[in-house]
Write a structure and sequence with these properties.
alpha+beta, Structural Genomics Hypothetical 15.5 Kd Protein In mrcA-pckA Intergenic Region, Chain A, Alpha-Beta Plaits, 3 domains, 9-stranded mixed β-sheet, 6 helices, 26% strand, elongated
């Protein structure tokens, strides 16, 4: 990677700014002053120091967020707060984006990364990655509803969903508490599936995506980077 591009990516300013820094002799590469802005360095192997500050290069970042209601699954929006707005400014240089989407009023597990290959594997239908949600549903969810989910539900636009797993955890005359596992991510899919069965989703929270489970120690709006074990399991 060009030295000026590396410094710009690491937040030392615009390309113009970092060229000035380099030409001033403020950058050391492997212990030697480097004034060539077009010098190519290996960001993983070379020791790059700027004004006494060593660069710790990180290509990909993986952040688990417990998404709260009222925040949209986007990187920028003129009217609404986005999931990336919840992150510290340190992460700006990585250009993170949400993997998949959660509705504005849906809570729970959200993965943000700049690893496009992993994001594709987790969201592509052909990879059949399970996504698990807990939900509160109006009315009594019946065995017939469970069977309908197992066979696939025809939505209002005529689309037949892939088979899903619906488990009833508890129920009263007015509400049912359920766990839903799907392998798709159609717009408002779970809400539309229940609507087709004459139920309304009152609360929805994602608990799992593939091998990644929500850390329950994270309060709504809190986040942390994935552990090495979590990342290995997710990629596996």
């Amino acid at each position: 990677m060009r030295l000026d591009k590396l410094l710009a990516n690491e937040g030392f300013g615009s390309r113009k700014d970092v060229k000035k820094i380099i030409k001033q002799g403020s950058v050391l590469v492997n212990g030697n002053v480097e004034k060539d802005v077009s010098k190519h360095v290996d960001p993983k192997q070379s020791e790059v120091v700027v004004n006494g500050e060593a660069i710790e290069y990180q290509e990909f970042v993986y952040v688990m967020l417990n998404k709260p209601k009222g925040v949209i699954s986007a990187t920028e929006d003129p009217k609404h707060k986005c999931v990336t707005d919840l992150l510290d400014s340190f992460y700006n240089k990585f250009n993170l984006f949400p993997v998949g989407r959660l509705d504005k009023d849906t809570e729970g597990l959200m993965l943000l990364t700049n690893d496009g290959d992993l994001a594709h594997r987790l969201t592509s239908p052909k990879h059949k990655v399970n996504k698990v949600y807990e939900a509160t549903i109006s009315g009594v969810v019946t065995d017939e509803d469970v069977q309908a989910f197992r066979e696939g539900v025809t939505l209002e636009d005529g689309y037949l969903t892939k088979p899903a797993i619906l488990e009833v955890d508890d129920t009263t005359d007015e509400h049912s508490w359920v766990t839903v596992t799907i392998r798709e991510g159609k717009f408002h899919q779970i809400k539309r599936m229940f609507k087709a069965r004459h139920h309304e989703v009152r609360f929805l929270k994602r608990l799992k995506m593939g091998a990644l489970s929500l850390d329950y120690e994270l309060a709504l709006g809190e986040y942390r980077e994935l552990s090495e074990v979590e990342l290995e399991q997710l990629k596996g």
